[in-house]
Amino acid sequence: MAEIDDFSEVRNLLRILQNPFVKQNKVAENRNDPRKLWRLIRELDGVNVKENFTWRLNDGDKLVSDKYQIVEMFNSYFIELPKSIFTELINITGDYISPEKRVHSQLEIPHITPEQVNDFLDQIPVNKSTGPDGVGIRLLKLAAPVISESLSRIINSCIITGKFPTKWKEASVTPIYKGKGCKSEASNYRPISVLSVLSKVFEKHIASSLRAHLKENALLYGLQSGFRKSFSTETALIRLLDQLLFNLDENCVSGLVLVDYKKAFDLIDHNILIKKLFFIWSTWPVAGIVQKLSF
C-alpha cells in the first residue's frame, strides 16, 4: 500500500509540474495580451475562470440572495466607503503648490479634428467593454468615417463651454472579487466601472494636451515612473537598483521606506486636486471640464 501511495503522489506531482511546460508556448504567445495572459495564469494556478457562482451577501446576521437587494448593498458600500475613509483623515489646509512649480503659461486644449477622432477610436482595443449607452467600439470603428465630424463638433462645444456631458459620466459598475476572503462580504470586492466609449475619445484628447503641458513646463517629478509614457515599474526598479549599487560602491548605507496605501484612489481629495489644476492653468474652460470630470 505504501508503494501505491508513493506512486500516486509522484504521479500527481508530475501532473502539476507538467502543466506549466505544456503551456509555456501559450505564455510566450500571449505575453503582449494582458487579458489572455492573466487568464492563463489563473488556469495554471488552479482557478476555474468559468466557475458558477451564486450571489449571496451578508447583511448583518442574514444572507441576502435577492439580486436587487445585493445590487443596492454593493452600491451603498462602494459609495459610503470613500466617505468613511475621509472622516478618519486629518483635514489638510494650506498651499499645495510650491512657488517654483507655478507656471504662467496657460494650458489651452485645442479643438479636436475629425482625423484625431478617428485616430483615438483606432487606439481603443476592439475588446473594450461597452458602456451603459450600449454603443460598442466595433460599431464606432466601422462608423468612424461618418460620425467623426459630428463627434468632433460635440467635443469642441464642450471645450468652449467648459462642460463634460453628464451621460458620458454614467458607468456600468461590476463588483469583482479580490481573490481572498469570504465571498459573501462586500468588503472583499472592488468596483470596476465601464464608461461610454465615446467619453474615452474626449478624455484621450484632454490627456494628450495635459501631458504635453506638464512635460513642457517640467511640472512632473523627475523620478516619477507611474502613469508616464516610456516609464514603468521596471524603470523604477532599475533606478533603485542602480542607486543601491552606487551606494554600495561608496560604502554608504541604504535605507528604504516602502508605503502601501489602502484604497489609494479613494483617498484622492478632489478639492485639493482641483486647486492644483487651477495653479497649473487658469483658463476656465479647461479647469471647468476637469472639475466636471472629477465630480
Automatic annotation (TrEMBL):
Pfam family, one: RVT_1
InterPro entries per the UniProt record, alphabetical: DNA/RNA_pol_sf, RT_dom
Coiled coil: none
Organism superkingdom: Eukaryota
Domain Reverse transcriptase: start-end pairs: 184-279
Classification via SUPFAM superfamilies: DNA/RNA polymerases
PANTHER family: ENDO_EXONUCLEASE_PHOSPHATASE DOMAIN-CONTAINING PROTEIN, REVERSE TRANSCRIPTASE DOMAIN-CONTAINING PROTEIN
Protein name (record): Reverse transcriptase domain-containing protein
Taxonomic lineage of the native organism: Eukaryota, Metazoa, Cnidaria, Anthozoa, Octocorallia
